[in-house]
Write a structure and sequence with these properties.
Blueprint: H1 2-19, E1 27-33, E2 36-38, E3 41-45, E4 49-56, E5 62-67, E6 85-91, E7 96-102, E8 108-113, E9 125-131
Parallel strand pairs: 1-4, 3-9
Antiparallel strand pairs: 1-2, 4-7, 5-6, 5-8, 8-9
This protein binds copper (II) ion.
Length: 135
C-alpha cells in the first residue's frame, strides 16, 4: 500500500515536471509587437544556457532587456538604468533573433522591459523567474 503511494507520488511529480506549463525551460520563445511581449512570463533554471528566439512583428525597434535582480527600470528607461542591465538584445522591425545567454545564478524574479523610448509606459514589460537548478 505504502509502495503504491510512493510510486504514484513519483509519477505525479514527473508529470508535473514534464508538462507543467509554468515549469522552468531552457528556451525562451517570445514574439514582440507594438507594444507587448507575448508571452510575458518566463521561467528558467538558474545558471543554465538559455536559447532565446524572438520575432519582432511590430513596426518599430524593440528590445528584450533583463534587469539585474532587485532593480527596476521604473516607468521610463534612461541612462541611470544602463548599469542595471543583466542582458539585452535588440530586434529591428520585422526581424528575428536566435541567440543564447546564461541565466542568472541567483533564483528570484527579474524585470524584463523594452528600452525603446516610451515602450515601458505602453506596457512592454515582462517577468523572468529564475528557479534553482536541481539536476
Ligand atoms: Cu518595444
Amino acid at each position: 500500500m505504502k509502495r503504491t503511494f510512493i510510486i504514484a507520488a513519483v509519477l505525479l511529480s514527473l508529470m508535473l515536471v514534464s508538462c507543467g506549463g509554468g515549469g522552468p525551460s531552457t528556451k525562451i520563445n517570445v514574439t514582440m509587437t507594438d507594444f507587448q511581449f507575448q508571452p510575458n512570463q518566463f521561467t528558467v533554471p538558474a545558471g543554465q544556457e538559455i536559447t532565446f528566439s524572438s520575432a519582432n512583428n511590430g513596426a518599430v525597434v524593440h528590445n528584450f532587456v533583463i534587469m539585474n535582480k532587485g532593480t527596476t527600470a521604473g516607468p521610463f528607461f534612461d541612462d541611470e538604468d544602463l548599469p542595471n542591465i543583466f542582458w539585452q538584445v535588440e530586434i529591428q522591425p520585422g526581424g528575428t533573433v536566435e541567440t543564447t545567454f546564461t541565466a542568472p545564478t541567483e533564483p528570484g524574479d527579474y524585470e524584463v522591459v523594452c528600452r525603446t523610448e516610451g515602450h515601458i509606459a505602453s506596457g512592454m514589460t515582462a517577468k523572468l523567474t529564475v528557479v534553482a537548478d536541481k539536476q
